[in-house]
Amino acid sequence: LNTDTKESSIIAGAEIVKKAHNLAIHGKDIFLMNDDGVIQIDSKSKSSKVVITKDSAWGEIAAIATYGGNIYLLDRGKNRIWKYIAIDTGFSDRITYLNPGVQVNFSDAQSIMIDGSVWVLFSDSISKYTHGINDQFVISGFSETFSGLTSFSSDESDKYLYVLDKALSRIVVFDKGGVYQSQYQWDELKNASDIVAIEADKKIFVSIGSKIYAIDIK
Fold first, then answer.
1. Among the four residues 61, 99, 143, 159, which has the most C-beta atoms within 10 Å?
2. Band of the pLDDT at 198, cuts 50, 70, 90?
3. 34: β partners
């Protein structure tokens, strides 16, 4: 979907998407999770292939992310972040991103985002990990508590984190030091399934049902 012209095209059909529940983008490549494992789709040629087969060692994969060409899987069933390194022949075998001795309960984890550090969204908090260890992230300037966080958005070029709080129909914005910046409230956000912020375009795109809405970043 071209956000300027609103023109759209299909790059993968039902035979590829199947029961996909997560996707991530790196350059022209789209990676999605379905019953076969991780599928790579070339958005230019529209070709696709399985690059990581479904692994019996996985528990419940909650989210997928890419960074530097590598793939990260958030496994809330096994309390792991699996990392697959890009190599000449595809991807390496899985390795554990978190350092030995780092114990985390990911049973409530909702999403994952990477900008050099690995960020994990929980329904009531955000955690940050750098070089495989907990990198303390403390929210300041914001006294309210969270209970319904479901999605967040940022990347290495963004200054801010955009967090969807469905419970209170809002998107809350923090800088990457945890300092509260602003929030956007709209009653329909209680029905949103995902958000993507693009600071360069000064837009937050919100998926609700079969429609995508745009909120201007102010």
1. 61
2. very high
3. 37
